[in-house]
Amino acid sequence: MKDKKFRILYLPETQSEMRELLISRNRLIFFGSAFLGLMFIFMTTIGILFSSYTGDERIADLSTENQILKNQIGETNDRINDLMKQVDVIRAKDSELRLVSNLPDVDEILKDAGIGGSDFQFSYNPDLISSEADRLIRDNLMSLEKLETNIKLELQSYADLNEKINANLDKLNYVPSICPIKKGRVTDRFGVRRSFRSWKSHTGLDIAARWGTPVYVTADGVVESVTWRGGYGKSIIVDHGNGIKTLYGHLSAYTVRRGQAVKRNQKIAEVGSTGLSTGPHLHYEVRVNDIMQNPELYIFFDMVNYLEVK
Question: Is the pLDDT of residue 254 over 80?
């Protein structure tokens, strides 16, 4: 097939005569194809470079965002743990109130109800995130579930306590619940202790204080005795009813008499060092049906509010 030619006429700007340019069709197709190919390669290269640049920038942004989210998840987990510690404090106070209200401890309720463990279902695909992020999310979700369960239990416990306390409010006035001294220093606690070559049981709580420091009765009751009692020295026993009695020993002075009705937080005596004592302090006992109890279990407010515990 004969190659066709195209004649192109043009007029140079500096000349007055027409010029012509002959170009074959095949050559025109060749140069046109070459130009389009070069343009395609050029645009493709520009696209790749631009895509790579924007991709790297996006990856950097996502990496920064991911790190921020991880930090936020970690901080959230710390706050959840702080809330759990506060719930534990509330749980301890709850147990104290349940003791005085004659209700079972929350831990016993958990055992009876069979509450424990977790069957929490995660609503995301862990294969799509890093193992570290998966761990953080799982820890947070499980901690939140535990916190939610504990809060529900405490709300229910509060309702039980409120009902019980309202029904027995008058009786609670006769249960020891405060510290007999406003400020002092614990020098010996309830329990067995070593004494020289043997072990000896300490039946109360010793609180050192200045001579003459006021001693307060820890619950409503009637003064059973005001007398010298062997190693206790000058002492007072208060009968609170229902088999509960409290003893205050090593006193220096009395401010009540036998048979007198007393109210919680009423001054009944002053600290001394009578009987078997090496210095001014109060020996405080709680007895239930003549069985010695740990007095600290009957101080239902933070002891630090009353004592400098050392």
Answer: yes
Q: How far apart are the C-alpha atoms of 131 and 41, rounded to whole Å?
A: 42
How far is CA 174 from its chain centroid?
33
Neighbours of 101 (CB within 10 A): 18
Identify whether residues 164 and 225 lie together within a single domain: no
Q: Are residues 150 and 205 in the same domain?
A: no
Residue at which a domain ends, from 122, 142, 172: 172
The tally of domains found in the chain comes to 3
Q: Is residue 237 within 8 Å of 195, Cβ to Cβ?
A: no
Q: Specify the pTM.
A: 0.49
Closest CA to 286 of 239, 220, 251: 239
Cα–Cα dist 284/181, whole Å: 10
The closest alpha carbon to 73, from 135, 148, 147, belongs to 135
Task: Record the tokens describing residue 135, joined without a space.
Answer: 């761990």
Range of the domain at 251: 185-305
DSSP alpha helices (H): ranges in the chain?
25-100, 106-113, 131-167, 169-172
For the record, the structure tokens of 270 come out as 């002053």
DSSP-derived secondary structure for 251-288 = EEEESS-TT-EE-TT-EEEEEB--SS-SSSEEEEEEEE
- Max mean pLDDT among 56-60, 165-169, 257-261, 275-279 falls in 257-261
Residue 306 CA to residue 266 CA, distance in Å, equals 15
Chain segment 78-134, per-residue pLDDT in tens: 887 888 888 777 777 777 777 766 677 766 655 444 445 455 555 666 666 667 777
Evaluate whether residue 70 is within a structural domain. Answer: no
Closest CA to 70 of 123, 118, 121, 139: 139
Q: Which of 16, 36, 64 is the last residue of a domain?
A: 64
> Does residue 50 sit within a domain?
yes
Q: Do the bridges between strand 5-10 and strand 191-195 make them parallel or antiparallel, or are there none, so unpaired?
A: unpaired
